[in-house]
Design goal:
It is a single chain. The protein contains 6 helices and 11 strands. By secondary structure, the protein is α/β, with parallel strands linked by helices. The strands form 2 sheets. Strands 1-11-5-10-9-8 form a 6-stranded parallel sheet, sandwiched between helices. Strands 2-4-3-6-7 form a 5-stranded mixed sheet, covered by helices on one side. Helix 3 packs parallel to helix 5, helix 4 crosses helix 5 and helix 5 packs parallel to helix 6. The chain is globular, with a radius of gyration of 17 Å.
């Protein structure tokens, strides 16, 4: 794993000299309840790169991911997608980003097939595989017509992680994507990440578990306690 500098560093952290088609953060500051969680955070990611945000509980990992999705405004700094501040292109940016948070984020009374179809309708719908192929890819083929509430926690997580792979979002932001997954489920998400990277996608994730990627490089950004 290639490591970046501390999140408290003031210059933007960069894996490449420039990322005109990529994802960038500049001088991000996060203040919650009069406490500064991080300051001067920056990075540049080019297509095909994956960044793991690391740090202890309370260091601001989830807050950072929400900033990167435009769900939380930074106290200072900006996030750029393809060279433009995401606040200036919200519609276009939101159609290109898939965010998977702590919660499953699925409709419990809908089936996995219906949840995927709804995700397609909300996204850019630039899909290259069928619904059945997407369900098989996340290990839910055979469960596609059961209400999501009847699935186990380990099955619901891939159900939520499936839409990004299906609807073709260029940017994935994943908060603890391996929660409640067994070894097989974890390997499945890792294979989706590698496929996403191979196709020129960008991903940012947090996890307390080791990420095992063999076909692409994994960058790391450490948040201080």
């Amino acid at each position: 794993m290639e490591s970046m500098d501390s999140a408290s560093a003031s210059p933007p952290l960069s894996a490449t000299a420039t990322a005109p088609d990529g994802f960038e953060a500049f001088d991000l500051h996060c203040v919650r309840h009069d406490r500064t969680l991080f300051a001067g955070l920056g990075f540049k990611l080019a297509p095909g790169q994956i960044l793991q945000i690391e740090g202890p509980n309370g260091s601001g990992k989830t807050s950072l991911l929400r900033m990167l999705c435009g769900l939380l405004l930074p106290a200072q700094g900006e996030v750029r997608w393809r060279g433009v501040d995401i606040q200036e292109q919200r519609t276009e940016f939101l159609a290109d980003v898939a965010y998977v948070g702590h919660l499953h984020g699925i409709k419990e009374d809908l089936t996995p097939r219906e949840n995927l179809r709804m995700a397609q309708a909300l996204g850019r719908a630039r899909r290259t595989i069928t619904l059945d192929q997407a369900l098989e890819k996340v290990g839910l083929y055979g469960f596609e017509d059961l209400p999501a509430r009847t699935l186990s926690a380990g099955q619901r997580r891939p159900c939520r992680a499936g839409p990004p792979a299906d609807i073709g979002c260029h940017l994935w932001v994943l908060d603890e994507p391996f929660t409640a997954l067994d070894r097989t489920g974890k390997a499945l998400i890792e294979s989706l990440l590698e496929m996403h990277s191979h196709n020129g996608g960008i991903a940012v994730l947090t996890t307390h578990q080791p990420v095992e990627l063999t076909q692409c490089a994994l960058l790391s950004l450490q948040l201080a306690a």
